[in-house]
Amino acid sequence: MSAENTAMFTDRYELTMVSAALRDGTAHRSCTFEVFARRLPDGRRFGVVAGTGRVIDALAGFRFGDEQLRALADSVDADTLDWLRDYRFGGSIDGYREGELFFPGSPILSVRSTFAEAVLLETLVLSVLNHDSAIASAAARMVTAAGNRPIIEMGSRRTHESAAVASARAAYLAGMASTSNLEATRRYGVPGAGTSAHSFTLAHTGPDGPDERAAFAAQVDALGVGTTLLVDTYDITQGVINAIEVAGTGLGGVRIDSGDLGVLARQVRAQLDDLGAHDTRIVVSGDLDEYAIAALRAEPVDAYGVGTSLVTGSGAPTAGMVYKLVEVDGIGVAKRSSHKESRGGAKAAARSARSTGTIVEEIIYPAGGAVPDTGGLATTDLQIPLVRDGEPVDGLPTLTEGRDHLADALVSLPWEGLGLSRGEPAIPTRFALP
Prior knowledge:
The protein is of the alpha/beta class. The chain has two domains: 12-132 and 320-342 and 379-431, nicotinate phosphoribosyltransferase (Alpha-Beta Barrel), CATH 3.20.140.10; 136-315, Aldolase class I (TIM Barrel, Alpha-Beta Barrel). 36% of the residues lie in helices and 20% in strands. It contains 15 helices and 21 strands. The strands form five sheets. A seven-stranded antiparallel beta sheet has the order 15-14-1-5-3-19-20. Helix 10 (212-223) crosses helix 11. It is globular and about 80 Å long. This is Nicotinate phosphoribosyltransferase. Catalyzes the first step in the biosynthesis of NAD from nicotinic acid, the ATP-dependent synthesis of beta-nicotinate D-ribonucleotide from nicotinate and 5-phospho-D-ribose 1-phosphate. Pfam families: NAPRTase_N. Keywords: Glycosyltransferase, Ligase, Phosphoprotein, Pyridine nucleotide biosynthesis, Transferase.
């Protein structure tokens, strides 16, 4: 997104607020906005922060050039247009690193600047974080259910073309092994994967009918015997026979994309072993989610492919994050609306853990204050500097480092926090606030 102008990824009311604030002087008041989720999606035990890197990249493109100003000429007054022409975010941002766990109330992002500078970023920040964190949270559940078996992300055809790229990035952050999306590979370095679809097999049909062997032979000739052959276009049993006859017992893998995957995986494993293809892997795909993956845990499956459920957050397509003003000129402010309350004042966060590394609670306390007493438990600060004076901080964690961090964080959860059953958040949040 860094090469793209992102200024118009903004709701109209943000500009009308800036216009009014410029008139009455509020625009220049020092403010802190915070991003947090009031609650986790129904039944979820934890959330995963993703998209922080994309937010920082998007800031570089948040500029109102001639094209954007022309588009706004009939929407805002001349003074506001002049102000927008010179807009550059010059404030500071702290937040949870990508790959960090979050819970209800976690101050995932703290944006400090003038009111006008900071309020303009609400829609952009939330659209990125809500999407990417929802995908990463779902993906982490799938990765946990899969154990040490790899998952291929292949959801591009089930979502918006730009969302597909962001989804692949978030899925990789959460521990998925690879993606079918080439733009995610180009832009973010996510490992790519993919061989063929049913259409390739169907294309090898002549006057005498389907020729599955010819399709397999063409694929092996192009990609080598290490490739994975899709064996369920016609009859799976015959498909496996054809695959091994064409590629030999050194065939890399076979993929099953339909039917009762558990039953079929057992049958195919037995058949491959009888044919001497003991090392040929079985990959399954077809509307898998974390529950289906968990149900296949005891089956002879070597890898999974996920699509629709991944790019839709497996039933929770948004992380439910909000962007709220919490401090004005050092004075805490809070929203009192029923069921939409906020807590005033800028905040910091820490997480306590036992000597074993298992986390116990999240503690939210006033920014600049000392971490409240934890009874001797070790604590870790959760927010890190992300932006200073409008520029990204040097040495921010990479996507790979975020991936490694999340893998360690998931191990630190109490064991029940990794369950797929409904329940309370894996750890409680303590608000040590005035």
